[in-house]
Amino acid sequence: MLMSKALRSGAGDGPGPRRPPSRPRGDGAAALGFLTPSIVTFAVFVLAPTVGVLVLSFYDWNLLSDGTFVGLDNFDRLLHDDRLLGVYASTAYMALAILAVNVVFGLLLAVLLETRMPRWLRGFFRLSFLFPFVVSASAVALIWRFLLNKDLGLVNYLLGLVHVDRINWLGSSAFAPVSVILVNSWKTIGFSILVYIAGLQSIPAQLKEAAIVDGANAWTRFWRITFPLLSPTIFFLVVINTINSFQIFAEPRVLTQGGPGDASRTIVEYLYDRAFGDFDLGYASAIGITFTLVLVLLTAVQFRLSRRWTYYE
Questions:
Q1: What is the mean pLDDT of the chain?
Q2: How far apart (Å, rounded) are the C-alpha atoms in residues 172 and 156?
Q3: Backbone φ and ψ of 53, nearest 5°
Q4: Which helix (H) or strand (E) holds 68?
Q5: What is the mean pLDDT of residues 93-116?
Q6: Long-range contact set of residues 96-99: C-beta below 8 Å, sequence gap at least 24
Q7: Domain count within the chain
Q8: Of 264, 268, 257, nearest to 291 (Cα)?
Q9: Contact 241/98 with Cβ under 8 angstroms?
Q10: Structural domain includes residue 69
Q11: In the chain, which residue ranges form alpha helices assigned H by DSSP?
Q12: Count of Cβ atoms closer than 10 Å to residue 217 Cβ
C-alpha cells in the first residue's frame, strides 16, 4: 500500500530543470591570481610602452628638454623623408630574401632530414641547424664579421682556392645586403626546419602508403598529399618569418652598420639612429607607429590570401 502510493507520487513528479553545477567560490580568485603575473607583465612591458610611443609621436622631445606638442608634424615629416623610402626598400629586399630562404630551403632541408638515415646522423644534422638559432644574434654577427672580412676572412680565403677574386662582402653596396641575408638566414633557418619536421611527422603515414600502392611517384605524393596537409605549417612560417625578417637589427648593425650608405640599413636600425643618435624621439616614435601599421597590414593580407591555398582537415 505504501509502496504503491510512493510509486504514484513519483510518477506524477516530472523531471525538473537541471541546475548548472555550482562552481566553488574560490575559482575566480584563483584564476585571477594565476593571470595576474601575465596581466602585469603585458601592461608594463607591452601596453604602457605602446601608449608611450603613441603619445611621443605627437611631441618634439630630445630626452633632455621638456617635450613640445607638435600634433601631426612628425607624421607629415614621414611623407617628405626621401631617405626613409630608401630604407624601406632595402628592408623589404632583405626581408623578402630571408623569408624565401627560410620557407623554401627550410622545407627542402626538412624533407631531406626526414628521409631514411641513421638516427644519430639525423640528430646531428638537426642539432647543427638548430644550434645557431639559440645563439645570440650579436654573437653570430660578430663571428661572421670576421669570416667575411675582405682581407683576412675565411670565406674569401676559400674562394681564392678556386681562383675567385676577393669580394668586399661588408663594404660593397651590392654585397652588404647579401651578407646580412646570409647571416640572418643561417641563424634562423633552424627554427623553420624544426617546425617543418613537426608538420611532416603529423601527416598520417597511411595516406603516403596508399599513394604508393596507387603508383604515385615521389613528386606526386609531395604535391598531392604532403603540401596540402603541410599548408597550415607553411602559412604559420610565412607569417612569423615575415614579421621577424622585417625587424632585423643586430645583423646589419654589427656587420655593416647599415652601410655603405643605406644599402643594408633596416627600418628598426633607422628608427634607432633617429631616436638615440639624433635624439629625435618624436619622429622615431612616428616611424615606429607607421612601421607597426605596415606589419599589421602585411599580416592581414597574408591571412586573407591564405584562404586560397591553406587546407585544414
A1: 87
A2: 14
A3: -65, -40
A4: strand 68-69
A5: 92
A6: 96/245, 97/177, 97/181, 97/185, 98/181, 98/184, 98/185, 98/188, 98/241, 98/245, 98/248, 99/238, 99/241, 99/242, 99/245
A7: 1
A8: 268
A9: yes
A10: no
A11: 2-12, 26-42, 48-56, 73-79, 82-100, 106-113, 119-134, 137-147, 154-161, 176-201, 205-213, 218-221, 227-246, 250-255, 267-276, 281-306
A12: 9
* Grid coordinates given for 97: 630574401
Cell triple for 157: 680565403
Are 42 and 48 spatial neighbours (Cβ–Cβ below 8 Å)? no
The residues near 259 (Cβ < 8 Å, ≥ 6 apart) are 171, 176, 265
Q: Domain containing 285: what range? A: 81-306
Asked if the structure places residue 17 within a domain, the reply is no
pLDDT digits (tens, 9 = 90+) for 265-292: 999 999 999 999 989 999 999 999 999 9
Burial of 312 from C-beta contacts in 10 A (0-12 / 13-18 / 19+): exposed
pLDDT digits (tens, 9 = 90+) for 210-258: 888 888 888 888 888 888 899 999 999 999 999 999 999 999 999 999 9
Domain assignment present for residue 302? The answer is yes
CB neighbour class for 62 (10 Å; exposed up to 12, middle 13-18, buried from 19) = middle
Cell readout for 239 is 607569417
The CATH number of the domain where 302 resides is what?
Answer: 1.10.3720.10
Judge whether 115 lies within some domain: yes
Nearest-angstrom CA–CA distance, 185 and 106: 10
